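Researcher: Quick test of sequence recovery. Tokens follow.
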């Protein structure tokens, strides 16, 4: 705990057997109270590795629900366990668990209710192996989103995120997609609800075992991201109402 606030790390997993142990070993258990592993019908032994590590809260989807569907289960379980701060960490070791502490402290000290680990702050993204086309797509999409949503994030596409309990209870994340665009829908909901978001610099790591979507799915994701930003713009201007911004 920090300031008597319970901290739970959630691990949305798919075929993470090769990297789960390395990720888990770097979680700072001096402040983290519990871990939730949600396995999205992996084809490998992700659940078995989690059990050997002693993770108490393991949920296995019998059918693949998608990245967004996995997160819904993660956040539901964390809130059920009484979390005050929930940190989503990918178990593929692409994001360093060593940033859990500063991200948690920012929320625990009531500075910001949401913290993102940004791969774009600084100059480490390309050096860390981010594909060139993904880097420039990230920059273009982020610029477009900042204009449409009147915000100033360095990136909207990181999967490293920390939330206060209040945020998770007040945005209707169950109305979002079960696919990758879930992340962007959730950020749009957070901004629409009036919350502010902090960012910390996160080292970029791309390697063979790290999860990544291919060019075709990246293109579909990019179009979905632009759609979300337009939905936000239309919602704010009152032109069109979207169900994702309705109270749950």
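Model:
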């Amino acid at each position: 705990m920090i300031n008597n606030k319970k901290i739970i790390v959630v691990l949305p997993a798919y075929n993470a057997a090769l990297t789960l142990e390395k990720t888990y070993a770097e979680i700072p258990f001096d402040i983290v109270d519990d871990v939730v592993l949600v396995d999205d019908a992996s084809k490998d032994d992700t659940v078995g590795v989690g059990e050997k590590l002693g993770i108490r809260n393991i949920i296995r989807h019998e059918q693949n629900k998608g990245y967004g569907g996995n997160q819904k289960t993660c956040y539901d379980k964390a809130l059920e366990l009484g979390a005050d701060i929930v940190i989503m960490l990918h178990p593929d070791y692409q994001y360093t668990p060593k940033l859990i502490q500063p991200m948690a402290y920012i929320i625990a000290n009531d500075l910001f209710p949401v913290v993102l680990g940004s791969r774009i702050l600084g100059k480490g993204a390309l050096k860390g192996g981010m594909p060139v086309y993904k880097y420039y797509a990230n920059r273009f999409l982020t610029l477009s989103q900042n204009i449409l949503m009147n915000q100033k994030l360095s990136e909207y596409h990181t999967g490293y995120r920390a939330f206060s309990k209040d945020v998770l209870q007040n945005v209707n994340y169950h109305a979002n997609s079960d696919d990758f665009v879930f992340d962007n829908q959730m950020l749009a909901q957070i901004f629409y609800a009036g919350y502010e978001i902090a960012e910390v610099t996160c080292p970029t790591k791309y390697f063979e075992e790290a999860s990544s979507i291919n060019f075709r799915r990246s293109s579909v994701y990019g179009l979905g991201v632009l759609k979300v930003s337009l939905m936000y713009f239309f919602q704010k201007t009152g032109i069109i109402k979207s169900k994702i911004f309705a109270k749950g």
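The CA atoms of residues 15 and 44 lie 5 Å apart.
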